[in-house]
Amino acid sequence: MTTPSPLLPAFARSELAFARGEGARLFTADGTSYLDFAAGIAVNSLGHCHPHLVAALKAQAETLWHVSNMYRIPEQEKLGARLVEATFADYAFFTNSGAEALEASIKMARKYHAAKGAPERYRLITFEGAFHGRTLATIAAGGQAKYLEGFGPKVDGFDQVPFADHEAVRAAIGPHTAGILIEPLQGEGGIRPVPPQCLRGLRALCDEHGLLLIFDEVQTGVGRTGKLFAHEWANVTPDIMAIAKGIGGGFPIGACLSTKEAGIGMTAGTHGTTFGGNPLACAVGNAVLDVVLAPGFLDHVNDVAGYAKQKLAALKDRHPQVIEAVRGEGLMMGLKVIPPVGDVVQALRKQHLLTVGAGDNTVRLLPPLVITRGDVDEALVSLENACREFETARASSTKGEAA
Ligand SMILES: *Cc1c(COP(=O)(O)O)cnc(C)c1O
User: Fold this and answer.
1) Where are the beta strands (DSSP E) in 39-122?
2) Is 274 labelled a binding residue?
3) What is the residue-averaged pLDDT of the chain?
4) Rounded to the nearest 10 degrees, how much is the dihedral formed by the CA atoms of 229, 334, 371, 374?
């Protein structure tokens, strides 16, 4: 008999447990190796136990972990300055997670209008298929029934429109609208890219109506798509941006970045966090940036992503009964599949390739950004094997039907 788990059964966990990680590989206690194209859901941006991150974490652990935002935190100031330098932003507010970065973004947008004398402008327009986190406000922002169900009244202030529907956005703008919140490329929703002209259209609508444009780059950020941030592909900038996942490389850290103007309402005492931006987290964030901002790093991401894209397109052509479409940007890749996505993720696990399921029956491939073409080739062997397995199963079931 198995002992009852002390853990709240809120996750549908696999039986797998890993003991060790190195680069793009994870190892179980018995030494079995898996190629990690999940990267803790786009978190382990530099793979497992990257030597530079390990060194930074160890050095900071022996110096100072936590002091509170009552004091100046040099590591936080340095990380903030680097993020500001590399983006549209003038300010950074550090958090421990993506959802908290979104909460800060949502509060900032509301407070901005309040500070401008229009507190009635508190509503954000969001999009179908969106995912912004699991707090009460972010499940309301995401608007997915399965996450809202049973948790009481939905937090007010979010108006959802169909994905990438410019006219619906225009029609949804009213006297209470504060801004527009969007992922430049939907992650949980199934690796659905927002067309660049749509992002530019949203920027124009915000400028026309005095609204704030908020990008959720929690999953797309920090080099994942081949640019430091995905919105750079569309050549538009937001007023506020939430980041997390990749910036910590596995250490929990997020941030709300904003222009000076968007931050006008967030004066001392209006928002806070105990842990956010502590020395330990920021030391690791700085170490991640040391690598991601180094010359040539994003070129590597784009090179290996281009290679993977070609290989995946050829795979789809060979297996049209399993793979319906290949999509994504950079190393944020999705395979829209025909068998149930959970079955495909499971079949790939059996082939020792780790991936993540997403909405729209899509398998997400989110490898560490440091993978090589050789790793892509290895993943393709697993993908090929899994596709064949589904075709064989399908062929024998149709034979059964005919008989
Ligand atoms: C993961 C994710 C979040 C939530 O981040 P947590 O760290 O889990 O709170 C929000 N938005 C997007 C786009 C995400 O991918």
Assistant:
1) 91-95
2) yes
3) 97
4) -150
The reported pTM is 0.97
Ligand 1 centroid–CA 97 distance in Å is 7
Could you tell me the pLDDT band of residue 401, with boundaries at 50, 70 and 90?
A: low
Q: Find the 326 Cα to ligand 1 centroid distance in Å.
A: 23
Query: Are the C-beta atoms of 222 and 292 separated by less than 8 Å?
Result: yes
Residue of 45, 96, 132, 240 to test ligand 1 pocket, by largest number of atoms within 8 Å of CB: 132
Q: Which fold has domain 51-292?
A: Aspartate Aminotransferase; domain 2 (3.40.640)
At 343-389, the pLDDT tens digits run 999 999 999 999 999 999 999 999 999 999 999 999 999 999 999 99
Q: Ligand 1: list residues with CB < 6 Å.
A: 97-99, 102, 131-133, 183, 187-188, 216, 218-219, 244-245
Pick the CATH number of 20-42+295-402 from 3.40.50.9100, 3.90.1150.10, 3.40.50.300, 3.40.50.880: 3.90.1150.10
Delimit the domains of the chain by residue range: 20-42+295-402, 51-292
Rounded to whole angstroms, the Cα distance separating 185 from 362 reads: 14
273 is known to lie in a ligand binding site:
yes
Please give the helix or strand (H or E) that residue 375 lies within, else none: helix 373-402
